């Protein structure tokens, strides 16, 4: 349906320009092309209501101009008809351009919304293989139930990457990917969770462990950091928190608002 609508809009634009080319004089064509370019830019840059307002102002402006230009003159019906056709072609072209750009903007917004929905439903980051935040929270909720039933203790860790603001984005991305890979290698596959916490951060859930278990995980992480000459320990800001497993809602309220930023 969207493709059909887009084809219709394009046909509408082409038809208006064919009519203009077959009927208007060269100066009139130049005026039409320039005015439609301006209307198109307004629709691209500003909100739809501003573009629609520009369209209405353009059509009404042409009508008032023709009235003012011929005010007090003796004109015959043929002359009035010619002016009316010219104004109609101008208005038709402007409407066609507005409809086309409006439809393209709608398609772009739908595509963006679908992309965000896909990102929220995706379970793993494509490159790093860590859990998305939504999937992390879903699995953490299940682990909480088991921990509460077995009266186990646990911890969650926030690992944030700190780099100079002048560093290029690709460099930050590379270091971020290395950080995630080393966190995955430092945790237990079937017992712990590593998720994207947004803003170049990771969140790690350690289940059925104590403070000594946390230190083991951190020692593994820093040893793996030391093995890579491109990484330094001071790049990573790590915060360790003990889990209050009595209430899942309490953990959710603490974690979700602090997430901030966007997933890398």
Q: Outline the biggest β-sheet.
A: 4 strands, antiparallel
**Strand fraction band?**
5-15%
Low-pLDDT sequence parts: 260-264
Helix content: 55-70%
Number of strands: 4
The whole-angstrom Rg is: 31 Å
- Give the averaged pLDDT, no decimals: 83
Distance between the termini: 34 Å
Structural class: alpha+beta
User: Assembly state here?
Assistant: single chain
Any chance you could write out the topology, listing elements then pairs?
Elements: H1 2-23, H2 26-45, H3 48-69, H4 77-121, H5 133-150, E1 155-161, H6 169-186, E2 193-196, E3 201-206, H7 211-226, E4 236-242, H8 248-259
Antiparallel strand pairs: 1-3, 1-4, 2-3
Helix pairs in contact: 1-4, 2-3, 2-4, 3-4, 6-7
Structural account:
The chain has 264 residues and is of the alpha+beta class. Helix content is 66%, strand content 9%. The protein has a four-stranded antiparallel β-sheet, with helices on both faces. Strand 2 and strand 3 form a beta hairpin. Helix 2 runs antiparallel to helix 3 (48-69), helix 3 runs antiparallel to helix 4 (77-121) and helix 6 (169-186) crosses helix 7. The chain starts with a helix and ends in a 5-residue tail after the last helix. Residues 260-264 have low confidence and may be disordered.
